[in-house]
Design brief:
single chain; 464 residues; alpha/beta; Aspartate Aminotransferase, domain 1; 2 domains; 3-stranded antiparallel sheet; 13% strand; binds pyridoxal-5'-phosphate
């Protein structure tokens, strides 16, 4: 049979509280039109993030009972280390409480203000942690990545020609490492090919620069390589993942994604010098190097999750179920980023709300409308997250793409809940010109999407 079904049965359920349109209108107003400020219990389908929201397996829950909570040298750490080492293959394995802690530690241990860190597209916290040291985080995506309709199979690739040129222009000593994010979350959950990682490896070798991976979604990336890259169709996802890591000198990872963790992160690195510095910094803020801000039970669950994530029945279901949502929306004419990403569907807010100018924050406005209409919580990855204002002229610089990400938690929602999502978005699309624009009433300088406040703008003000 061709149909791909959920490769699991549901053993524990969590009720969803139904809400009315009127209630949601009030909730989003009380949240100052920022979906991050909503109470989760007021959300029907929560697609804000796939991070830390996975359903753990019965094996992971059983592992939790095995957690060794010793302060130093816990059994759980060694199980974690074995599971990570077996896959990543680097010399030093350092747990952290989540991905951004790993980013911060690497940034603090390695970066200086004149450094430039090139990548395919840095995730928002990665960028903030790099820039927090005074260094520059530079995105070098492919030109195809800015065209939502372009069907490039590896749209998450780093532009190798620009990488080479950048190193020549700024000089090797200003590039402490190259960072490739797999899959490319801010670029639409798009995969990076093995050929591209290998190409980056060759450039890094020529200039003696370390190559790191942001491996939050390494398993989904491996699956895309299996399905789309010539020569990999008959290899196990696990073997492909190992090859990706073999090409790197180290990796940081949010284990809240492709390790089925509710919490967790890691640094896996070959350099003794960096590992030493990182461990010293880790003790200041995360804890002893054998627990790194995590409980022993978390380490157990992550060690198991890292193995489960590479089960091919799971990966086939995962990628197909995300594509299911995207393809149904595309058939209904809803503008979105193609091809469909691994963990999320990205709506193209500018084309969806083409009555709104960039100043009226089309994707942010759309994310509020989706909540109000259908109780679906999503995450803007666009003008609010990445827009910057010139401090002298006050002019805004908007990112190339203004998107609404519908991130799908792993093993959590059923197909009929996803059908509800498709229907809800389609209904908003049919009445899209009534989606009001938004403007800031409060905007912090760092990571503005988390805590900004907004108000709707009267329709009459719209100028487009
Ligand atoms: C690619 C990528 N890197 C890093 C992070 C940060 O990880 P965390 O949320 O665990 O701090 C995320 C989180 O969404 C991510 O998607």
């Amino acid at each position: 049979m061709k149909r791909i079904i959920e490769p699991f049965r549901i053993k524990v359920v969590e009720p969803i509280r139904m809400t009315t349109l009127e209630e949601r209108r009030e909730y989003i107003r009380e949240a100052d039109y920022n979906p991050f400020r909503l109470k989760a219990e007021d959300v029907l389908i929560d697609l804000l993030t796939d991070s830390g929201t996975s359903a753990m397996s019965s094996t992971q829950w059983a592992g939790i009972m095995q957690g060794d909570e010793s302060y130093a040298g816990a059994r759980s750490y060694y199980r974690f280390k074995e599971s990570v080492s077996d896959l990543f293959g680097h010399k030093h394995i350092i747990p952290t409480h989540q991905g951004r802690a790993a980013e911060r530690l690497i940034a603090m241990a390695v970066l200086q203000p004149d450094h430039v860190v090139p990548g395919n597209t840095h995730f928002d916290t990665t960028r903030a942690n790099i820039e927090g040291t005074g260094a520059t985080a530079l995105d070098l995506p492919l030109p195809e990545a800015s065209d939502p309709e372009n069907l490039h199979p590896f749209k998450g690739n780093i532009d190798l020609a620009r990488l080479e040129k950048l190193i020549d222009d700024v000089g090797r000593e200003r590039v402490p490492f190259v960072l490739i994010t797999v899959t490319n979350n801010s670029g639409g959950g798009q995969p990076v090919s093995m050929a591209n990682i290998r190409g980056a490896r060759e450039i890094c070798d020529r200039h003696d620069i370390p190559l790191l991976l942001d491996a939050a979604r390494f398993a989904e990336n491996a699956w895309f390589i299996k399905k789309r890259e010539k020569g990999y169709e008959h290899r196990w996802a696990e073997v492909i993942a190992r090859e990706m890591f073999e090409l790197s000198d180290g990796a940081m990872m949010s284990m809240k994604k492709d390790a089925f963790g509710n919490m967790g992160g890691l640094i896996s690195i070959n350099s003794d010098e960096w590992a030493d510095k990182i461990r010293n910094l880790l003790i200041l803020t995360e804890g002893f190097p054998t627990y790194g801000g995590l409980a022993g039970r978390d380490l157990e669950a992550l060690a198991i999750g890292l193995r489960e994530i590479l089960e091919e029945d799971y990966l086939a279901y995962r990628i197909a179920s995300t594509a299911y949502v995207g393809e149904h929306l595309a058939e209904l004419g809803v503008p979105l980023l193609k091809p469909i990403g691994g963990h999320a569907v990205y709506l193209d807010g500018r084309r969806f709300c083409d009555h709104l100018t960039d100043e009226l924050l089309p994707s942010w406005s759309l994310s509020c409308a989706l909540y109000e209409h259908a109780g679906i919580r999503s995450c803007e990855i666009g003008n609010v997250m990445f827009g910057t204002q010139d401090p002298e002229t006050g002019d805004w610089h908007w990112p190339q793409l203004d998107l609404v990400r519908l991130a799908i938690p792993r093993r959590v929602y059923t197909k009929s809940q996803m059908d509800y999502v498709v229907e809800g978005i389609h209904e908003v699309f049919q009445q899209r010109t009534s989606v009001p624009g938004m403007r800031f009433t409060h905007r912090p300088d760092v990571l503005p999407h988390f805590t900004s406040r907004f108000e709707p703008v009267e329709q009459a003000v719209h100028t487009k």
